[in-house]
Design goal:
- It contains 13 helices and 19 strands.
- The protein has about 550 residues and is of the alpha+beta class.
- It folds into 2 domains: about 40-290, Rossmann fold (3-Layer(aba) Sandwich), CATH 3.40.50.1110; about 320-490, Galactose-binding lectin (Jelly Rolls), CATH 2.60.120.430.
- The chain is elongated.
Length: about 550
């Protein structure tokens, strides 16, 4: 009996060691720099720098694209509906991709098969639409005002923040067309160093942060840092030694390949061609591995300035579920956070974005309330045109407070400006919120019509016509003195995916029952333990 138990214990120890050992994950699929197997139609939106890059006797890009199985067309000055080809500065991309004319412009882009520059074509037109859309602004767009680390703004202009706004905005269109591959070519550098630090920081943001900050879920958007390649002999954006490399010498932020002006020289353009083609092939194969066979059935048009429009629907789940993160400036079509309070003169509210307490990122909304009995105060964000939040199931956010046992309201406004409807959900601050951040998830049906409006206590049913929302403290018998922070406001059910944890973090959190076991390992261990119990019973 003792000998049998000893054997069983040895087997059990061995099984536990095996189950606790980490499984080796399969290596990630290697990038493929080879050309597509079939001819792929590509169009390049550009001006003079792109024309030189395409030219056979300059950058040779047109010839090389053909040799890599891409049938090339392009636009230039004077091209397209409304001569949209004239306008390729960074702020103009909103007109191309997020305006009332986007459908017309994109129909022309997708169906263009002609040449508007001189370059040799070695392939026959395979028919159908252009699948790859390359677009580039010219070198003056490297003169961005502002500061290198400016966050995205709320409108398009030639500043770092305005340019970030543009690319965040047009990403919303790209998300509606996962059947197309959009390749952003950064603007070439200039020789004047006055704003060169801004250009470097902005283009690094495009390469490293743009898609990540937007939680972009598709593989149909890529960036080639034309700017970086042209700023130094040791500056590269290329595929080398089995990986994509983006490197540069510090301080090399102006053109290293001048041609008598700020147009890149043929030597610089040829360097860019050599580095770009393998990357384009990689981007193509990455996109093909996850691209759907057909585009979405319906594409919502963006709002038309000055005309009544249906609200723009939120993009797909997991992509743009975040409403406000307080890192990117005020949301589009808003005037920022506004504060309102009773007119007694004794109530006060200080409502502003601050960095003294945050849940994610570097900022949160801080609201310092001092509300007298029977008084009220509210911090509110209003939209110029109604927003459509119907893609979500409710609101999700995090909050913390300086005091427990207080209360505040989450307000949603709907309907017309002449007949605004207010819906409220009340939160009592807890001991946990006074010690740290607390997660809140409020389904739409839990918001109830305010008591001072008609049909009080009716559940909220209009998430497709949001005119604003806010956080307030209403009339009560006791004064309310409390500071509340709110962060990461999202649509319930469309929350951004959590950041992948490191192995050490996963192991640390997995020290509870079954923490280190994959599903298959847990099942195998359970079967083994049952078998051992049967052996013990037999003996």
């Amino acid at each position: 009996m003792k000998r049998s138990l000893f054997i069983v214990m040895l087997l059990l120890a061995a099984l536990l060691l095996i189950a606790g050992a980490p499984l080796t994950a399969p290596p990630p699929q290697a990038d493929d720099p080879s050309p597509p197997d079939q001819v792929v139609k590509l169009i390049f939106i550009h001006h003079s720098s792109g024309e030189n890059w395409l030219a056979d006797d300059n950058g040779g890009l047109g010839i090389e694209l053909g040799q890599n199985n891409y049938f090339v067309s392009d636009t230039n000055y004077g091209w397209g509906p409304d001569a949209i080809g004239d306008r390729t500065d960074i702020p103009n991309w909103v007109e191309w991709f997020r305006s009332q004319s986007t459908d017309r412009y994109m129909d022309a882009v997708y169906n263009e098969s002609g040449q508007n520059s001189s370059y040799a074509r070695s392939l026959d037109d395979p028919g159908s639409e252009n699948e790859i859309i390359m677009f580039k602004s010219c070198f003056p767009n490297s003169n961005l005002d502002g500061h290198p680390n400016d966050p995205p703004g709320t409108y398009e202009d030639m500043t770092v923040s305005g340019a970030k706004y543009v690319y965040n905005e047009i990403l919303k269109y790209f998300a509606t067309r996962p059947d197309k591959l959009f390749v952003l070519i950064t603007a070439p550098p200039v020789s004047d160093p006055a704003l060169a630090d801004n250009a470097r920081a902005f283009n690094n943001w495009l390469v490293n942060d743009w898609l990540r900050e937007n939680n972009y879920a598709y593989s149909n958007v890529a960036v080639f840092d034309f700017y970086n390649v042209l700023t130094g002999q040791n500056n590269h954006h290329r595929y080398v030694n089995g990986q994509v490399e983006h490197v540069y010498d510090p301080g090399k932020n102006t053109t290293n390949y001048p041609s008598g002006d700020d147009h890149p020289s043929s030597r610089g353009n040829r360097k860019a061609t050599e580095e770009f083609l393998p990357l384009l092939n990689i981007y193509y194969h990455r996109w093909q591995s996850g691209a759907p066979a057909q585009p979405p059935a319906a594409i919502e048009a963006p709002p038309v300035a000055g005309e009544a429009q249906p609200p723009a629907a939120m993009p797909p789940s997991g992509t743009f579920g975040r409403i406000v993160d307080f890192e990117s400036g005020n949301p589009a079509d808003t005037g920022g956070w506004e504060q309102y309070m009773d007119d007694t003169g004794d109530t006060s509210l200080n409502c502003a974005v601050a960095s003294d307490a945050v849940h994610g990122g570097s900022n949160a909304l801080k609201m310092e309330y001092d509300v007298t009995p029977t008084g009220w105060a509210v911090c509110t964000l209003y939209y110029g045109d109604p927003a459509d939040w119907s893609a979500g199931d409710g609101l999700s956010f995090y909050y913390r407070s300086t005091e427990s046992g207080r209360y505040f309201d989450v307000d949603i406004y709907a309907g017309s400006s002449e007949n605004q409807e207010t819906y409220i959900y009340t939160i009592d601050t807890t001991d946990e919120s006074a010690a740290g951040w607390v997660s809140v998830q409020i389904p739409w049906s839990d918001f109830k019509r305010s008591s001072w409006e008609e049909n009080p206590d009716q559940p909220f049913t209009k998430p497709d016509s949001i005119t604003g929302f806010g956080f307030g403290i209403g009339a009560g018998d006791d004064p309310q003195v409390v500071t509340i922070w709110v962060d990461d406001i999202q649509l319930l059910g469309l929350e951004s995916q959590p950041i992948a944890q490191s192995a050490s973090e996963t192991q640390e959190e997995g020290r509870g029952v079954g923490g280190l076991l994959p599903c298959s390992g847990t099942s195998a261990l359970l079967v083994a333990l049952l078998g051992l119990l049967w052996i013990i019973k037999r003996h």
